[in-house]
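SUBJECT: A protein chain and its fold
Encoding: whole-number codes for local backbone shapes
Chain under study, with its fold:
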Amino acid sequence: MFKTESPLPFILVVVGATLILINGLWIGLNNYPIMAASAPASSLSDLYNTSKVNMTSINSSALEPSGFWIRINLGIPDYSENAWLVVWLIFAAISLMCGLLLTIDPRPHGNLSPVIILCSFTSLAIGGGFIIGFVCSLVGGLAGMEWPKPLQNTFVGRILRALKLDSSLYRKVREETHLLSQALWVLIFLNIITGVSYGIYNLTYLKANSSVGELSKVLFLGRITTDFSIFAYPLITIGLAVAKWIILSLLIYVVGTKLMDAKCDFAGLAASVAFAYAPIALQALLPMMYSNQPQQLALYIFAVTNIWMILGLVIAVTRILEVSTAKAIGVVMFCGGAYWIINYLVITPMLEVPGIWFTVKPPSLVLLLFSIGTITALLMGVFSKHKRI
């Protein structure tokens, strides 16, 4: 038995389900999803330079953005009102009841936690309890599957610690190499949710780009587009993510053990790299947002989550290789540069992988940046033996 059998996961479920119910009732009062925009706008002319354009015939792809505008919607139009709303509120009530029952008596957690997880995903149709409710409910449901483990030692708890850039996580991973299988599940989980989100965002972008009328519906009514093709995205991204994970882990392992003479186990290092990918989970928020500059919006989110991931990777390398932060930055710069060349100049173009990617052209510029990164890594002592800290 664990020293502490905390009911925290189930309290999170209660809080999450309550927020979901509030979100749903708010939609019921307005009979439409909650929407927010970065600035007042009531027509396309407010968002685009349309003085010289015939708005009745022009394709939306020809519109020139006038400034940056973004809208966020909590709830799916046509699927969050009237009878649909009642269905989602019933799911939220079931989740709340399960949370209350498990808070009082956690013993049936193995039977009720899957129900909570299912209910948490259905809440996205009505805004997911202002997103916070969905997160609390999902975290509580996933952690409840492993009760009575402390939250921080569960599958979802480790993902949260990776998001917090908690260095103690990587010390634990270094010691427990059996976490490699769990790290692989982290990659699969992250790429399922982000892959589906990419699919929805891409279909919505194509639909909005088909005509001015469809663009208006997407921007001002919060319409999104889905079909069964969105499930092809995670299947593609999972395979690619595993390949990229192995490549990056091997690069860091070779540099760390062969060039720096660090002592580390490949399984522990690979597991740490997988957990460092945790911030890409935030890319799942894409379908809830849209902008008059949709590609730029996606790239902004992509950039923020990847910078966050790089910070996590630096911390992971510091702990796994037992090197200074400066050397860890050098390792990430050198290995990341090589990884970038392999991934974005070879794998992604060759396989024509769908998604959102940074591109740097011409290729000679990529090589120039890699050379600068290599020299910087050299100055940081990456290619010299070190004393472990």
Notes: Residues 166-389 form one domain. The first strand starts at residue 34 and ends at 37.
